[in-house]
Amino acid sequence: MNVSARVPRRLESYVCGRWTPGDKQGVPLLDASTGAAVAFIDSTGIDFAAALAYGREVGGPNLRALSFHERAQMLKSLGQVLMDLKEEFYAESALTGATRADGWVDIEGGIGTMLSYSSKARRELPNTRVLIDGDVELLSKDNSFSAQHILTPLHGIAVHINAFNFPVWGMLEKVAPTLIAGVPSLVKPASQTAYLTELVVRRIIETGILPEGALQLVSGSVGDLLDHVEGQDAVTFTGSARTGRKLKSHPAVVANSVRFTMEADSLNASVLGPDAGQGTEEFDLFVKEVAREMTSKAGQKCTAIRRVIAPRVHVQALVAALGNRLAKTALGNPSDEGVRMGPLASLAQRDEVRERIRDLTVDAEIVSGDPDNVRVLSGDAEKGAFLNPVLLYCDNPFSASAVHDVEAFGPVSTVMPYDGIEEAIALTHKGKGSLAASVFTNDPRIAEEMVIGMAPYHGRILIGNRASAKTSTGHGSPLAGLVHGGPGRAGGGEELGGMRGVKHYMQRTAVQGTPRLLSAVTGRWMEGAGAGDTSVHPFRKSLAELKIGDQLVTATRTVTLEDIEHFAHFTGDTFYAHMDEAAAKANPFFDGRVAHGYLIVSFAAGLFVDPDPGPVLANYGVDNLRFLTPVNPGDTLQVRLTCKEINPRARADHGEVRWDCQVTNQNSAVVAQYDVLTMVAKTFRKPS
């Protein structure tokens, strides 16, 4: 049975812990290829104030009761279930006009982003509920008064208002960092493709993995929802700049200083370097990338290339190469074999793009494609929202305005020439701020000048060349670890960016007090907090017994000239400061021969390590190593080792322990300071 022939379903919202239909039948949502009704959408009758309150009062406490690692594990489990259900999502995705490749970016890209956040959070965040932000600020000479910045989850709800082009990725890329931060989400997808978002949310809720109130969905209009946002809430928006500005200036958003992140229209540019003429690998890569960005998701991507900027001497060859490649694009029903580009999301969207193309022709001429003559392999050319790729050329881009102001959100790009790198950079600036840009060059000098000149106007810049061709993710691919957003026209916001995205939903607070009390708040020992138990070597304690502040002060060891020379010959490090007395004295930092820094670290380990089998399983690193005072032959070293931070792993029988290691000389001067990182068993029984 053709999936398009099914009976249209009535979409529901998931609010206040239950699935709720609107009071009316709703507006029909159509198959983008055939025009057949897929679903009906309506949200009238929903109590939006109650939905927001439910998220704050139920979802928030449930999430904040979990640690960062527990929330991350929750997303991992959820992502694994969703990946097993992906074929169901692909079938629904085809109705939106997405090909299998388009659906992969949206569906598996969205789930992959969530899994990536889960992995990064477990690697980069502690297994706590509070984040430490930056170093301790010392506020007194005697260490009696200090300050530490911390990050804690907002006590509100995040409202995510998404665009139609990525109904899965657009939701999950925002929900993932929000949930890891410990903040519940309410998702409002764009109506055109909301049936796919609703299906994914249904499957999420069915898993029972998320705590009650962590995720809600509104299918349909948001009504008076924004009237009820408060100061602890956050709102994110992806869509047109006009709508974004309207939402950002909403009285409740302004009055309550609600955090607002906008990702808006973006006239992204791709620049062909002056070294990348016809016949170079970069020229061919550029043509392929521009064509791919024009046809992927039928050009309905906020990061798609809208302005193609090339050296004037290469423009004619570029237009010909692009025209030939675009003419081979097989347009039709994305479910059919051989189709490489599907329709736009709706007939209204097709009409909108045609109107914008007419606006662009004020400054540019169409050199490839006919927006009014649709040619398809399959699907209904009239009832389906099909549009063949359209390439325009603007010969005088500096005297034009439409090509820098009008976005045709479809398979449409405009080629424009430049004379000199300064002109190329200036043309990218005329977009007034973009999400993404790219430069195709194999010349390091050109790459440097272009990127530095373009960066203030762009959220992300890709440098494309032959060396990265096989591994590059391409111009238009936002990645979980990289910021997604841009200045000016692009909205001035940031999403993703790894843990940067998590921190957007947290409050940074400066906490001042005595080191002992600050350590209790942060779960991290700091200088001046005093020592805990010193009666037992801390390496003899399992995580069940070890406490922050437990400390060891070691015996001493005197460094001899023989030690230094032996270490030099043994390691091969015969740097003159260790081996040549006269040369060392001539060095302004030394007063004669000095010990190697790593000799000091090695001797320190010899002083604090307990050699017998115990709960300490492995040393896996050293952080923040600094050598502060030179060590000369005859100096005597001593170590103070303090348990600084304990980070148990949620699903393992061990955890990480960070130790503060301070090495001093006979004058109590600190000669070395660093953190030792070890794996420690949660429990330990001495072998019989």
UniProtKB/TrEMBL annotation:
InterPro entries: Ald_DH/histidinol_DH, Ald_DH_C, Ald_DH_N, Aldehyde_DH_dom, HotDog_dom_sf, MaoC-like_dom, PaaN-DH
Residues in Aldehyde dehydrogenase domain copies: 22-497
Keywords: Oxidoreductase
Domain MaoC-like: 548-658
PANTHER family hit by this protein: ALDEHYDE DEHYDROGENASE B-RELATED
Protein's recorded name: Phenylacetic acid degradation bifunctional protein PaaZ
